[in-house]
Amino acid sequence: MHELVDTYMDHLTVEKGLAANSITAYGTDLASYVNYLADNGIEDFGNADTTAVIGWLVYLTHQGLSAKSRARHLISIRGLYKYLTAEKLVSVNPLKDIDIPKIGRHLPGVLSVSEVEALLATCDVTTPKGQRNLAMMEVMYGAGLRVSELVMLKVVDVNLEAGLVRVMGKGAKERIVPFGSKAKEAATRWLEQGRSQALKQLPSDYLFVARAGKPMTRQSFWKIIKKYALDAGITRTISPHTLRHSFATHLIEGGADLRSVQTMLGHSDISSTQIYTHITRDYLIHMHYECHPRK
Predict the structure, then answer these.
(1) What is the pLDDT of residues 118-174, one digit of tens each?
(2) Which domain holds residue 43?
(3) What's the pTM value of the predicted model, to 2 decimals?
(4) Which end of the chain is more exposed for a tag (fewer CB within 10 A), N or C?
(5) 29: closest CA among 51, 16, 12?
(6) What angle do CA 128, 169, 277 make, to 5 degrees?
(7) Is residue 175 domain-shared with residue 63, that is, in the same domain?
């Protein structure tokens, strides 16, 4: 079974062009399923029936996985069986009668404009690290990048004169996203001043470098965001993704159309972007209550 999973993973990498993070997630889900089957005496995918799959879902529940996580696991396994049946490696798909539960969309946390400004104001731009961290947050908020996209940016991906950044998103899909004057100013300062001091003559293609010219990890940037949030007096939990959510929400509140925001975010399906209309609706209701004379 592990060999078939490896073959399927190669298919996802080569034929589907999925990003490394997605491949890792699929691999983890599939390994969990294979181990469960083996522990229950099933050594062949063809011998796993619907009852076995349901038993696996119950097992995940007992392991404390949320409904959203179980649905993600089920999607991973459904893709595997779709591939196996298409390649005639199994004759029956045990998931054909199992529906993926509809999970309520979680509204992401969003900062207000004043909170974003307070967050960005905490950086000490007299130091290379401060210049780098401000540039990272400005570019992320200015272009709505995913944290994985941000940390993997290379110097050649940014056109400061035009105010554009080239991003390699999910599924190896490239997009060009504009960013504003504040992000341009911060990125220029970092490139012209702090980056060379941080590198200390080490070669690196990456825009935002950490130790030895390597790109910063997502986890490290998360810690930086949390520290600056506390310094800014933001007590609720935020993450790098909060800046991406704030980017989208503030654009829509400012009048941007949904299709444009979808393109900038790199969403393949507009339903992923529509979640921000719910946030904006709440914002409008709040503003109406606060500002209308006959509330």
Answers:
(1) 999 999 999 999 999 999 999 999 999 999 999 999 999 999 998 999 988 777 778
(2) 2-86
(3) 0.62
(4) C
(5) 12
(6) 100
(7) no
